[in-house]
Write a structure and sequence with these properties.
- By secondary structure, this protein is mostly helical.
- Helix content is about 80%, strand content about 0%.
- It contains three helices and no strands.
- The radius of gyration is 15 Å and the shape is flat.
Length: about 90
C-alpha cells in the first residue's frame, strides 16, 4: 500500500464538511428533498476535491499513526456534528 499523504486526509475532511453543510442546511435552513441533498453534497465534495488537487501543498507524506489518528478525529467530529445539528 502506498504511503499516506495529506491529500488523502484532505479528501475525507472535504467529504465530512460537505455532509455537515448539507445536513445543516437541510435541518435548519431549508428542508430539501433527499435527492437534492445528495446532489448538493456530491457537488460540494467535487468542488473541494478539485481545489485540493490544484494545490500542491497536500502531496506531503505523513506517518500511518498520524493518518489514522486524523481520520478517527474526522469521523468523531462528523458524528458529533451530525447529532448536534439534528438535536
Amino acid at each position: 500500500m502506498k504511503e499516506p499523504t495529506i491529500k488523502k486526509v484532505a479528501y475525507g475532511i472535504a467529504m465530512a464538511i460537505a455532509i455537515i453543510i448539507v445536513h445543516f442546511i437541510d435541518a435548519r435552513v431549508y428542508a430539501m428533498p433527499p435527492i437534492f441533498a445528495l446532489f448538493l453534497a456530491i457537488f460540494i465534495t467535487y468542488l473541494s476535491i478539485a481545489f485540493i488537487n490544484k494545490s500542491g501543498r497536500f502531496n506531503q507524506t505523513i506517518s500511518r499513526t498520524n493518518y489514522n489518528l486524523i481520520n478517527a478525529v474526522v469521523v468523531l467530529v462528523l458524528f458529533i456534528a451530525y447529532f448536534a445539528i439534528s438535536g
